[in-house]
Write a structure and sequence with these properties.
The chain has 11 helices and no strands. It has about 210 residues and is mostly helical. It has 2 domains: about 60 residues, Arc Repressor Mutant, subunit A; about 130 residues, Tetracycline Repressor, domain 2 (Orthogonal Bundle). The longest helix is centred in the last third of the chain and has 26 residues.
């Protein structure tokens, strides 16, 4: 029986081959994001994705079992959720009105930075069942972040008891809709002013 010395070097967790494989996977995901956004998820074939990435079609299937799985990887890599979570955490101790207005505006800007990803969801929700399924998932997680913050403020006594799920969805979906159709609002109210007024209405109510 051969005993290994306690001083023997441990196997490296990440080998050169692993790193290259991860680089290639990231390249395929980034390429897919741009192709899906430009041509559409449903109209893009795996062969076209492979050609755009400069790889063999078989290699695409080596990394992703299907085009659906590739879209899921695109969303996981380019989702707005990590940044949204960080925004809420950064301003956590500020007054709710300030937090919701600042986060709302920055969330609006963040969606603009994710234009390619958002284009897929805005234009492809009717083309393939997987697209609305993934979109619902990401929006449910996003509204959950808003709701968690609201629930904490209710417990702290900063907000009255109310249906925080409705408030969270109102905030998240209105901002997403505003980003998707913002041009139509420009002649009436600037997006940042719209978000400020929406938050004021939610917090103060509109009853006389």
């Amino acid at each position: 029986m051969i005993e290994h010395s306690v001083n023997s070097p441990r196997p490296r967790r990440s080998t050169w081959r692993d790193e290259k494989a991860e680089e290639r996977r990231s390249q395929l995901i980034d390429t897919a994001l741009q192709v899906f956004a430009k041509k559409g998820f449903d109209k893009t074939s795996v062969r076209e994705l492979a050609a755009a990435a400069g790889v063999a079609q078989g290699l695409m299937y080596h990394y992703f079992q299907s085009k659906d799985k590739l879209l899921e990887a695109v969303v996981e890599r380019h989702s707005f959720l990590p940044q949204l979570k960080a925004l809420l955490a950064t301003l956590h101790d500020e007054a709710p009105a300030k937090v919701l207005k600042v986060v709302g505006k920055q969330f609006f800007d963040l969606l603009g930075q994710k234009e390619s990803l958002m284009n897929i969801f805005f234009h492809e929700t009717q083309s393939h069942p997987v697209v609305p399924r993934i979109w619902r998932g990401i929006m449910n997680e996003g509204t959950s972040l808003f709701q968690t913050y609201l629930d904490e403020r209710v417990k702290a006594g900063d907000l009255k008891v109310h249906n925080t799920d409705v408030t969270a969805r109102t905030l998240a979906y209105t901002i997403v809709l505003l980003r998707g159709t913002s041009v139509a609002f420009l002649h009436r109210t600037r997006p940042d002013e719209f978000i400020n007024q929406m938050v004021d209405n939610l917090l103060n109510g509109i009853a006389a």
